[in-house]
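An example makes the point: we let one protein speak, the chain in one-letter code, the fold tokenised, and here it is:
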Amino acid sequence: MLNDLLNYENLKIYQRKDMFNFSIDTVLLARFATINNKVKNILDIGTNNAAIPLILSTQTTAHITGVEIQKDAIMLAEENVILNNRTEQIAIVHADIKEYIKVESDNKFDLVLCNPPFFKVGDYKLNEKSALLIPARHETHLTLADLIASLPKIIKNKGYFAMVHRVNRLTEIFALLTKHNFAVKRLQFIHPFYNSEAANVLIEATFCGAPGLKVEEPIIVHDENGEYSSQVQKWFSK
């Protein structure tokens, strides 16, 4: 299934109904992460169909690597990179991040992003509609602890790590980041509606960075009519 990648000019993306498709979290994470002149080398862990690298490619000329463990997702990601003429900028790698860091430890990144599985195995019933959805939503292949433990081996000193996750796991995330010498620098809470509690949160930390946390203006995803808010819609295009 071929779709427009929101309102990003000339960007198209192949997706499959039986696989994890890009979501509002995908877009918000790609637009939340710090992109500046110092960011020359970017890694997206669990890149799926390469939606995050494609969005990032409209914001920066930095080289972007997408790592993905699922073979079916890799095929889509590679097809999407070719379709959008991004082969010079985006590289797709079929690997488990826990193995990738063993062979690429000399290749350090300025920015690492991840939209990880949110749910611990056992906390929720595994999605049975498609086996391909399970590792995208549940920690069957990559736990939060494994993810954060892998980062020091692939990120530069003072490099950025950006992720989106559930608010109810924020305490655990802070503890793991601190354990592995990250300083949380930015938080932005995501509320489904104006009068609802935050469900998810965007987090950015720096490796071996100085302390100093900024909580940014919350993101309200939907307006009172259930449509995407104007705040969110501005991130649906370059």
About this structure: The chain has a mean pLDDT of 87. The first helix runs from residue 24 to 32.
